[in-house]
Design brief:
alpha/beta; eleven-stranded mixed beta sheet; binds S-adenosylmethionine
Length: about 350
């Protein structure tokens, strides 16, 4: 058996049959698979694969040092992997919960068949594992936090989810060839970096012309209720936890409770954004706007909404009024909005 076959045998399908999309995150050279590592053809750089997770993390260069908060954010998530699993989670319960979230269910139904996907900042891998249950796609879940990836890959192995694979990476230096991916998803991640727009640029570079980009960010207005609660919790403690139903419902184990509480109310860094701002990012990088969740034209987000059919592009005023509506509705899901676009050919 040759070395490539030895590595291939134990690893999930994306590493076995889509490894050609990977590249060295430092030199950009293609990666070859060895028995327990990926390496460049010259052998000058080697990346271990331990416990089924490929360690392809590359730090930022000194030119980014000023804005680099990677180490601080990594330490935060190593202590509290997000969103973590329930003790009794199984393949079925994960799929059931994902379908309840509507967005994940719609992705599962509407993503193009055969797509090679990266979820950048996958955390403990719920979405990657859910989407990886379909034989119709290959999905890489990448994150810098090793403890999150261990939970993600542990779940994947336990429930034999063969079409998902996990790797440690820095989204500012994604270890993928330029224009090699059909879809990049990054939900709730870029606002925890020192340069959200730079992160967006680094990810879009990896998408094929005609491929899809989905970016979820905190919105400046819709995030306000969470920030108000944060102030109250800091000042008055648990007596005010009733203001966030998830904290008092009692249906999360300790790990998930801590993950939600700390991610929402004790995070060391978050930025806030707007629909109009991200439309500017799309325009600057030749990404055609397709849709927004919630819809920017104020219509309801329903199960029959098509994520990848171009919606009418809305004015800054309409975008602002959609964001105001998100605020008045209570800023659900921490005030996240998701922008979906297609990279132009
Ligand atoms: C709030 S969690 C979101 C997890 C997941 N996307 C979800 O929606 O459940 C943010 C994740 O982004 C990851 N992250 C932040 N900065 C990153 C970077 N520069 N490279 C890779 N991952 C990063 C963190 O480690 C963390 O797991």
């Amino acid at each position: 058996m040759d070395a490539t076959a030895a590595l291939a045998q134990d690893l999930p399908a994306p590493f076995r049959d889509r490894a050609s999309v990977l590249e060295c995150p430092v030199s950009g050279e293609p990666l070859l698979a060895g028995p327990d590592e990926f390496r460049t053809a010259s052998g000058s750089r080697r990346y271990s694969v331990s416990d089924g997770i490929a360690n392809l993390f590359a730090p930022l260069g000194p030119e980014m040092a000023e804005r680099d908060i990677t180490a601080m954010v990594k330490a935060f998530y190593e202590e509290t992997p997000f969103p973590n699993y329930d003790d009794l989670d199984t393949r079925d319960s994960l799929a059931r919960k994902a379908r309840q979230s509507l967005f994940a269910a719609m992705l599962d139904e509407q993503l193009p068949a055969g797509a090679v996907i990266l979820e950048a900042g996958c955390g403990t891998g719920q979405l990657t594992n859910f989407l990886g249950m379909s034989w119709q796609r290959r999905i890489f879940g990448g994150d810098m936090c090793l403890n999150s990836l261990r939970l993600a890959n542990g779940f994947r192995e336990r429930f034999r989810i063969d079409n998902a694979a996990f790797l440690q990476m820095n989204l500012f230096r994604p270890p993928f060839r330029d224009e090699s991916l059909d879809v990049v998803i990054s939900n709730g991640v870029l606002h925890h970096t020192g340069d959200p727009r730079g992160g967006f640029e680094a990810l879009v570079r990896k998408v094929k012309p005609g491929g899809l980009v989905l970016i979820g960010l905190y919105n400046s207005l819709a995030r306000l209720p969470t920030l108000w609660r944060r102030r109250l919790f800091e000042r008055f403690g648990p007596a005010f936890h009733f203001l966030d139903r998830r904290l008092t419902e009692g249906n999360m184990n300790e790990g998930r409770w801590q993950a939600w509480f700390r991610d929402q109310y004790a995070h060391p860094h978050e930025s806030k954004h707007s629909i109009t701002e991200v439309l500017g990012w799309f325009d600057a990088h030749r990404v055609e706007f397709l849709s927004c969740v919630p819809p920017a034209d104020g219509s309801d987000f329903a199960a029959d909404t098509s994520l990848f059919t171009p919606q009418r592009r809305t004015s800054s005023l309409q975008n602002w009024s959609t964001e105001l509506k998100m605020l008045l509705d209570g800023g659900h899901d921490g005030g996240l909005f998701i922008m979906i676009g297609r990279k132009r050919s």
